[in-house]
Specification:
The chain is α/β, with parallel strands linked by helices. The chain contains 14 helices and eleven strands. This is LacI family transcriptional regulator.
Length: 334
């Protein structure tokens, strides 16, 4: 038979109301009384009905996180950081994968998933700002990523342009002049790919190195995408002495293909990435990359969302902080 609140009250020698006050964290309870109730809850194995509590209080103490795919290392590591930041503030996190599909993103904004949470951290890849605002409702929402940037929406940003410029400047300082970029199309200006390509171009211009669109290779942001892009570039006969993968898995795929093709890294061709996923440190050679401030992104996003939930700060002022990045110089591009 399931343990009830009445059982807890009898075991602790208190009223049913006192047990309810302890469960709901009512502040005006004597410490000794609260401890007796907590001890009885633990001894009896009582489990609170979170659904009933949320209906009474209007609060679930759950944050939602919507991202494209947890198999992407950066997203998985970011999700871990977000869970830690939320837990430290008394919240837990429900994660939903959108699969980069508009219908799934919209459903997460207004469906059952949304009703289970007090606020949402959202990495959109399909919906635009107008669609997000229309579907989001009244619950707090904080965006991550750069696919959507809008002055009406709270978001935490990566310094994509500046960080990509720093990677490119590092490669240029090492004497590289033919730097291939993997993961963008010539002419991209928005989203992570466009901003990182713009940073690359800015660094070339600052060093008086001519931009060559034949060195910009479009590919999926996956390991096989990076490997395929390098294979195409090598087979084309276009000369290059460095590779900048616009995320680490692209760079790691490129690194693998270069080594398979007998290219010496970094002696012949230097390789750099972006994201500083755990795998970057353990590649052989280890990968030079950008650490975009992932822990800071998680902390600031969670803090901003919880402040919105709890009514702290100015409700009328949209916040869009940027995380600090750092360059991690390793063996692939010393």
């Amino acid at each position: 038979m399931a343990v009830t609140m009445n059982d807890v009250a009898r075991a602790a020698g208190v009223s049913l109301k006192t047990v309810s006050n302890v469960i709901n964290d009512y502040e005006f309870i004597r410490p000794a009384t609260k401890q007796r109730v907590l001890d009885a809850i633990e001894e009896l194995g009582y489990e609170t009905n979170l659904t009933a509590r949320s209906l009474r209080s209007g609060k679930t103490s759950m944050l939602g996180l919507v991202l494209a795919d947890l198999s992407v290392p950066y997203y998985a590591e970011l999700a871990s950081d977000i869970m830690k930041a939320a837990w430290a503030r008394g919240y837990r996190v429900l994660v939903e994968q959108s699969g980069n599909e508009a219908d799934h993103e919209k459903s997460a904004l207004q469906g059952q998933f949304r009703s289970l949470t007090d606020g949402l951290l959202f990495i959109p890849l399909s919906l635009d700002a107008g669609q997000i605002i229309q579907a989001a409702g009244k619950k707090p929402l904080v965006l991550l990523g750069e696919f959507v940037q809008d002055p009406r929406l709270d978001m935490v940003l990566i310094q994509n342009l500046e960080a990509a410029a720093a990677v490119t400047a590092h490669l240029l300082a090492g004497g590289r002049r033919r730097i291939a970029v993997l993961g963008a199309r010539d002419g991209d200006t928005t989203g992570s790919n466009g901003l990182r390509l713009s940073g690359y171009k800015a660094a070339l211009a600052a060093a008086a190195v001519e931009y060559d669109p034949t060195l910009v290779i479009d590919c999926e942001w996956r390991r096989d995408g990076g490997a395929d892009a390098i294979a195409r570039l090598l087979d084309s006969g276009v000369g290059f002495d460095a590779v900048f993968g616009l995320n680490d898995v692209v760079a790691l795929g490129a690194l693998h293909e270069l080594l398979v093709r007998g290219k010496r890294v970094p002696d012949e061709i230097a390789v750099a990435g972006f994201d500083d996923i755990d795998e970057a440190r353990f590649a052989s050679p280890s990968l030079t990359t950008v650490e975009p401030g992932r822990a800071e992104i998680a902390e600031r996003a969670v803090e901003l969302l919880i402040n919105r939930i709890e009514g702290k700060g100015s409700a009328d002022k949209v916040e869009q902080p940027e995380a600090e990045f750092s360059l991690r110089v390793r063996q692939s591009a010393p």
